[in-house]
Structure formats: structure tokens, C-alpha cells
Amino acid sequence: MESLNGLAEGLASLATLDNLLVILIATVIGLIGGIIPGVSGPMLVVVALPVTYAFDPTQAFIILTVLYATSVYGGMVTAILFRAPGTPESALTVLDGYPMAQQGQAARALGVGILSSGVGAIIATVGLIFLTPILASLAMSFSSAEFFAIALLGLAIVASLSSGQIGKGIFGVGLGILLGTVGNDPMTAQQRLTFDSTGLASGLEIVPVLIGLFAIPEVLRRGRLNSNRRFDANYGKVKVWTRENFKEVGPTTVRSGILGTVIGVLPGAGATTTAVLGYTQAVKFAKIKERFGKGDPRGIAGVESANNAGSTGSLVPLFALGIPGSATTAIMIGAFIMHGFQPGPNLMSSQSTFVYTVFAAILIANILAILLSKPFINGVVRIINIPYSLLGGIILTFCVIGSFSLRNSIFDVGVMLAFGVLGYFLSSVNFPVATIILGFVLGPIAESNFRRALMMAGGDYTVFFTRPITAVTLGLVVLIIAVPIVGTVMRRVRKTPVSEALKV
């Protein structure tokens, strides 16, 4: 009942021309950004982050959350038509979407994609509205020990789900944690790793770091691709609300939407992980599995419902616990800092109108995305034929302006460029850059709560094992890290010939 009252209050708060216009514009930009390869949700949020400083906090978060939620819709368009996913979350949509397009069923594939994306997003938005206050209420009884364990759980999930690269994942998280320690010690205010630099005295600003690691490498990478490639947008009439679509992909869409919401709530999981699980469950429940990978609509539905649900679901731990559920929501931590908010359980009680207004905006944006997707696709697909040299230049300009404007500091521009070079190098060797971002954001949260818990317990480390929630969470952390490592070792042992194993 409290959630329904809050939603009604949020909808009433949105009932101004300014707010509705902001939602509409953010929805349109999100759809365009998702469709254009190289302009994904994280990049949109990163570039928009400094721009939102000119808006009031409510409108700022409406812009960022709507951009993130609606960009995932658009990613499936180019994945289906051109085998070029507009967003990482839609990478698996290629498996069945592109074969359908090659078989002359592109319009049907797009219809299934729109339907499943919309249903998954709305399922997750309902979950966001009802689960966030419950989780926040539960978190009110948490101490620093519980928050440390949850932050550590997020770091463990990020490291273990780094595309099967557990070693790189652990290293990336560690590097992010190290970068997060630069500046003032949170307990003693002593300088750490500043090397007597005044620019580093207050620590690394999150916005230049995020822009450098996410936006710059993508612009450089796309700039090296063939800019003369032209896309043909002739694919026929898109049908969304048909009995055939509901009958064939309805159950898969609902299952993936629920699964994506649940997995998205886990700190650090993110929409890309939910997309993989969504596709896996679609195959698992199918009676005829041979069609998958050759043009099965359920393959599209499983991925698109799950990734849209996962992106919205990842907002739950952000608002309820102050812990990001994905790399993009980690970027939004910077927005909370910019606008003077502290995300977490107290936000739900002290700023409930603000929170439910943002939730209501996400619900409206998802409905708008469903309505706009069909008429929007044909026109927007033609936009991707704009030379990326022009588009990339515009993005780079926004990156420089955004980094400089926060503190009017050339030093921050230098930080952005330095991390841009680092991000480009790491991306070129297939390093999971998102692990650094989440380590950078979650590391300080884990450190401050770890030290605070020890201080409150008088230095007694058993505080982390005698509290039930903390002990169970830390046990999960050990399992999450240990299982992939043990599995890798066992596979190598099985592959090792007996004669080699017996050598001294």
C-alpha cells in the first residue's frame, strides 16, 4: 500500500510540462543512443552526467535513469538488422535476430524484440517500485558490518562474472579499489597516494574517470572501423501486438523478465549477465532446441526481456542500499554526489517523493518506449549512416566540456584523457573495464564500513562472523570466488596427461 501511495504521489509530482518534456526527450535520446552502435547506455549516462548539473535533482535523475532504461531497447535494432549490437546487453540478440533477418523475417524479429523488451522492462519497473522500499526498510537495521559484506559481495560478483576471466576480474576490481583510496583517508583525513599533487588532494573525481574509461575508448575504437559502411533499412512492416507473438514468445518473455529483475537486483550483476541467463533459460524451457541460433523468436525474447529487466532491476540496490547494481548505476553514484544526496535506506524515508517521482518517470518512459519504438525505428536507423567521424567528434567535445565544467579544472581534463588512454589499451586486450569502475565505487564503501565496524566492535574481527546476515553474505563471497577458480583448476587437471602428471 505504501508503494502504491508513493507511486501516486510520484505521478502527481510529474504532472508538469517541464517534467513530461524531460521524460520525452530523454526517452527519444535513449532510443537513438541504443540504436547507434558505439553510443551505448553507459556512454549516454557518462556524457549526460555533467550536463545534469544544470537541472534540479529530480529532473537530473529522471534524465539519467530514463536514458539508461530506454537505451537498452534500441540496442536490439542493429543487432537484428545488421549484426551490429547497439549496446553490449543486446550482443546475444544477434544469435537469432540476424538469422531471422537473413530469412526475410526482420520485421517479425523487430516486433518480437519490441514486445519482449517492453514487457521485461515493465515487470522490472513494478519490481523496482515494490522491492526498493522493502529492501530499504530491511537495510535500516543493518550495521556497518552488513554494508561491508554486501559491498564485498558486489565486488565478488563483478570479478567472477567478467566474461569468464576471473583473473582479470579480480585484478580490475583491485585496481579500482586502489584508485578509490587516492586522496583523504575517510577516517583520519590523512593524504594517501597523492604524491604531493594538489589536484589529487581531494581524490580522483568520479566523472573524469568514468568518461575516460567508458567514452573515450569507444570513440577511438569506432573511429578505427570502416566509416563508409552503409546500412539498408528496408525490412518491411513491423508487427508487435499480434496473437502469434504472444503465443510463441509470451511465456519466455515473462520468465526472462522475472529472472532478469531478480538477477539485476544482485549488486554488480548488471544487464549483460541477465541477458546471458535469459537466453539460457529460453533454450532450457524450449521443447525444440535445434532452432536456437538459426532464427528462433524465443532467443530474441529471452535476451531482450531479461536485459531490459536487468537494467531496471539494477536500480533497486542503488536506491535501497546505496550500492550500484551495475557499471551504469555506478556512474549514477557520481550524480548523487554532485547533487548532494546520499543513496541508501535513509533516502527512501527522507526523500520519498523524489524517489517515487523518479520511479514513476521510469514507468512512463518504458511505456513511451514501447509506443515510440515501432514508428521510431525506420527513421532512426537512417541516422546511423551519419559518418562516425562527425558523431565521435561531438561526443569527444562533450567529454572535454563535462570533465572541465565540474570544478573548472584542466587537471580533471588531464585525468579524463589519461584514463581514456588506459581504457583504450585495456579494451584492446579484452580487459573487462567495468570491473575497475565498480571497484572504484564499491571499494571506498567497503573500506569505510569495514573500518567503522571494527571501531564499533573494539577491534574484534568476530563481528563479521557472529552476525547472521554478515556471515552468510561473506560465505557467499567465498563461494563466488572459489567455485570458478576450483573449476578452472579441475579442468586443467583433467586435460593433463597422466604421464605428465607423474613426472617429478
TrEMBL record:
Annotated keywords: Membrane, Transmembrane, Transmembrane helix
User: Which InterPro entries has this protein been placed in?
Assistant: DUF112_TM (IPR002823)
Tell me the ranges covered by the DUF112 domain, including all copies: 20-438
Q: Which residues cross the membrane?
A: 20-49, 61-82, 109-135, 147-180, 200-220, 318-341, 353-372, 384-404, 416-443, 464-487
Q: What is this protein called?
A: Tripartite tricarboxylate transporter permease
Lineage here is:
Bacteria, Bacillati, Actinomycetota, Actinomycetes, Micrococcales
